[in-house]
Each structure stands twice: as C-alpha cells, then as structure tokens.
Amino acid sequence: MTKGYDAVPGGERHLLLRYLEAVAAARRAPVHTAVAFNAVYFGYDLGGDGYGGSPLRLDDFPVITLGGSVRALPVGAMVRVATGSDPLYAEIVHREGAHPEVGPLGDVPEWVSGAPAGAAGPGRPATGAALSRRELLVPDLHAFGPALSLSPAQLHRLRTRRRWINEDGHVVVDVSYPSPEAARCDDLTAYADHLLTAAREQLLSPFVPVSLAELVGGTSNDELRAGLLGLLDTVRGVLGSSASLRTWGYYAVTRASLAECWADAGPLGGDDLRSLAATVEHAATPARRRHGLTTPVTVYTAVGPRLRQFPGAKELLRGVGYAAAVCRANMTLADVVRRDSDQGLFENGSRITLDDTFESGGVWRSHHPGGAKAPGDPLAPAGRGWASTLPARPESEAGGDPEAEIDPVDLPLADDAFLGPGELLRNDAKEIAWRAPLRLAHLIDGWFPLHSYVAHELRRSHGPRLASHLELDHVGQTLDEREAAQDVIAELGGEPGRLTGILWPRDFFPGLMLELRWLRGETVIRVATTPLTDPVHVDDRVIGHCYDSRVLTREDAPGSDRHGDSAVGLGPRQLVMRTVRRCGLLTLDGHALLDRSVLPSAVYGRWPARSQVAVLESAVADLLAERILEPALGSRDAWGQPYYPARDGQLAIPLIGYRPVRRRVIRPWGGTEPDDLGLLAVQFVAGHLRRLRPGCSPSEAQRAAFREHCRRLGKADGWELPHGYTFVTEHTRGH
C-alpha cells in the first residue's frame, strides 16, 4: 500500500474498504482522507473507544488556544485544546478560512474569494516571507473515547465561557505559514509534511501496528515521504471506490446519511438545502425592468455563514455537525449544477460556479448574464473573485474581453538533442544494424528514417526511389500478416532517407525502441522489438518492450495519438499535462520540469485570460495532490534560461515536474489475475505489540527484541514495552 492505490491487489483493497466504510458510518463528521489514514495507521476502535486505546502519546500533541497563533495544522492533526484545567484531546476533522470580512448572511467581498494567504485587500497580495491567515478548526472532541472526553455539562460550560473554544465548540486561530508555497499546499501534502516534521515521533512510534519505517524498510526522509504519500493515495483511492460513500474533495460521507438528510423536513434538511440552492441560483438575477438593459451582476455566497441563517440550525452546527452540514450543502449545490444547468448556465441566464473551496465552508459565484461560452468545469474552484481585483492588462495586450476564451496553443514537437538518427549497433561487410525510437510523426504518417549509411548505399545502387520490403517482428506478440510483411517505398533523395507507407501495429507507441537490420545487397529492412524482463506500468500504459522514456514523455502526452496531435478539446488537467511534458526541461530518465510561472502563456498564448489562469492553477493543485505532478525547485539565469537543479547565485523559481509512474506488472502466484488470492498464501508479518492477559508479563527476550526493533526504527536509545503488552517478532505465516 506504500506504492499507491493502483499497486494494491483487489482483495486487500476490499478489506481496507470494509473497515473505512465502517469508520465513515461510525463517525458523525465527514471522513477526510487524512482522518481515514489516522484510523487505519493508529488504530481507531469502532466499538466506541476511538483512539483511546491507540499508541498515541497525548503529551506530544501541539496545543491550540482560541484566538491564539499556531503553525499550520492540517486536517488529521492530533491536538490538545488548552483549558483552565485538563486539556481536551482532539483530532482536527475540518478546517476553513475565517476571513473577518465575510458577512453573517454569507455575503463575500469579491476579492476574498480565492485570495492567497495573507492578502491585505483587493489586488494586494501578501508581502514578505512569513504569511498568516485566520482559520476555523473543527476538532472532534470525542475522537479519543469517553475516558478522555468531557461530559455534555462540562462541554456546555466551556462553550458558554468562550475562553478555550467558541460557542460552537470550534477553535479560531491565526495560522502562520513559512512560504506562499506552503500556504497553497493541498491537504494531503500538508498532512504528510506535518507527520514528517511536527508529528514525526507520532508517525514513527514503535507502538503503532506497523511503523512506516518498517513498511518502507528505512528511515530516510525521502523513503518515508514516498511511502507516506503512497499510503495516503491508497486510502483516498479506496474511499473513492466505495459504492456506499460519496466524496466531496478529500471528504467522504455515507450515502445513507445523505439520503436521510435530504428526506428530513427539519432544520438543514432537504427543504433548507433546496432553498440554499435556489438562493445561489437566483442571487445575481436582476429585477425585471420594462425599459433598458440590466448591467452584469456578480454575487459571491459563502456556505458556512449562510447555513447559520436557517431557523433551528444553531444547535446542528455545533461540534463536528458543522463539518457534516457544510459537506452536505456543497454536495447538494454541486448536484444541482450538474443536473439542472449546462456547464453552470441555468435557464434564468445565471451561471453558477464554485469559486473557492477553502474560505468559510466554500464560496459559490453567481453571475448574470452567464454568457454563451462555458468557462471550463463549473466545479473547479477558479478564484475569479480575487482574480477580478488584480491589475488589468491593457486591452490591446489582453485581446479585449478579459473573460474571453483563447484556444489552447498546439505545441510543436520539441526538437531535443536526444532525438537524433539513432544508435549504430553494427557496420560490417555483412550488414548494418542500428536502433532508434519510434516517434509520434512516424505513427501518424506511416514512415521511419533510414540510417544515413543505409540510405547512401541503397541510393548509390538503386537511385532516389526504391520499392522495398519491411519485415516486422514484435517479440512475444502475434502480428497480422499485413503488418508482419509489408511492401514499402524507400525514398532516398532527401536527407535522411526514409521508408514510407508503413502500417504500424495497433499497440506500437511513441518511444518504442526498434532494432533495424539491412543485409548488404538486399532491399529488405528487418525491424524487431526487444522484450523487457518484467513488464511495467507507465501512467495508463502497460509496456512489455524496451522504450525510450524521453520520447514517451514528450510524444505520448494528452492530445497525441496515431490519429493526430492537437490540444483542441482538452480539459484543463490534460492541457497542463501536455504543456509540462512538451515544454519542460527533459532529464535523461524522462522527467519533465517546467517553470510554473510560464505555464499559462505556454498553454494559451502570451496573454491568457485571468479566468483561464485560475482554472489552470486549480488543475495544477489537483495534479500535485494526486502526485501525477510533483513540485521542484530550479533557478533562472540573467537571460531567463531555467535550470534544474537550482544553480548557486541564480534566482530560485518553483517548478512543476512530470515523473513517469513506473510500476512492475505483478504476476501473482497460482493465478493469472493481479487480484488472485494466491498472493495471500504466504504473508510477511512485521514486528508488533500484542496485549497480554491479566497477570501475564513479557519475557526478558521479548523486552530486548522490542528495544532492538525500536533502534531499527530510528529510536537510538530504544523504548521499553508498555505495561500489559509483549512484542511479537517479525515472521511469515501461511504455506
């Protein structure tokens, strides 16, 4: 599971899914991916004790105080809420922006929607390295079971006093971030950073069922980060695959609870949610006039404050009930947009889009008139409110309407240095042999270049044009007769010479390495592929033959296949992927890294519209969260040339990088399917704790084994066994 969702056999996914569905049903709050990870990794008891019996060391938790200042605390963080007596132990299950300018009716100044952390006003981003913003944290004060929770009467007193928690049982704090990049991190990256720094002791505790260090086989930061992100990806994928759960961003709720809410006629039930949807839909609709035209109207509505205005909602929005209500409201609005509109455009002429997922439970944008052209996915947070307050470009530069759509640029294939005539393998009295990668242009137009030595020899003996023959051997695969032996034309007049009229097999792809042979005196060209010892997955493609990863990165990008090469019709995510892979700096192993600041102009042209920039940034954030793209740091010299890795003395710049995801295709024991239960016939069991019966104690050998286990996990002085437990050493079980 440290390798990510796609690497986990179906049987193991099913076991994890059953547990996470039970967790979602047991908890009142929507289950965030980070919270679901905690439940699995630290052991959340479904019988009512929660984390009460887990190995967590409560005194290690960071302390938060109402109105205080803290370092960034992502969803999933375990905290201590300071009080006048004993602290409250809690798990953060929801967080959102708590901007003071958001009105009590959910009315939002346009500049707040989508504003970066620390923004001081319309079009005024934060200055300086350190950033701060006010956030509302929703702690689950009952996550550690009844033994570590307050009684209802005690909790009521704390809410009434409003010294340690507010009247809703929430904590509002000023959160500081070390950099703008840290403030923009997606939830899972932020939580991974938190576990690897502030909560590192908690993450590497030898008391957890299986420590991350044991799972990845090391304690280096790179190994731990890769394994942790893989586990988070596995948990998110399992939550998203459930038929009984629905997801909103990183949150998951049971379909049963949603159906119960929508059928409820009480406060925040189906009637109120339908009323909320109608309010957002008609928020920007102008009053009808008998004469004249109405001016465009834009209204921003924050979900959280708006929910508080429904009669009887106050009690339901206390504690984790607020997180559940916000999640249900956003799901309802999204369903209405999908069902009743055309890409957000409703019959009344208004266009409804999600503009900000973080501020005040989510901000929705209502604009009238909506316009005929769709501005992209209406549920991709575009941040148009903040973007509309940035300094406008001159109309001559922006192309007129700042909201106008610009067709994506069709990027030409990069003429990189590695794309040469191929590698000469042999040149003797008998034959000439060479190796070269198949290119996208070859697939589209049905041709392949000849090595210059071969072209020169054939031209000297046969002239500028020759009827030739191609014999193709795709090792391990059966080819159609028309593909295996083909009559082709050798065009030898130009440089380089080439074979034309080739019918390439259906499963050939850009980057596939071809080995070619020409026997002197013949007109036959023989082409063969070379099988890999172990097939691999690269993105969505299963590859069983040798290939050039650099060509694959460049030319197998979205919008490119044997039928053509165009960016027209691609969505924002595909445009980002296409641009990074086509325009990024290319490494020897097929990585592509692009200066993040030039992405919009590379996609759309010199001056893209502000709305398009926001949509691209949202797509980049999603791709980074899913680890399809990765952040990196490079530099730029005085002439604007980017470099990676960063060079000393040059301006540091953020990069976004595409790394081909390579995984071995595993053939299970005793079966042909990856999900075959034969994989479970023999299992490795890591060392772990086991509770003893009353009156029993561990042997000295097990105490010593546990100390050695701790040292392997990076605990230099070792730890002692907790009272009432023994240590089970690593072993295998099964046949």
Please provide a written account of the structure.
29% of the residues lie in helices and 23% in strands. With 735 residues, it is an alpha+beta fold. It has four domains: 5-102 and 124-255, no CATH class; 264-288 and 295-390, no CATH class; 423-549, no CATH class; 681-734, no CATH class. The strands form nine sheets. An eight-stranded mixed sheet has the order 13-14-19-20-16-17-18-15. Strands 2-4-5-6-7-3 form a six-stranded mixed sheet. The chain has a five-stranded antiparallel sheet with strand order 25-26-29-27-28. Strand 23 (560-561) and strand 24 form a beta hairpin. Helix 1 (10-26) packs across helix 8 (221-241), helix 5 packs antiparallel against helix 8 (221-241) and helix 10 crosses helix 12.
Structure described in brief:
The protein is an alpha+beta fold and 735 residues long.
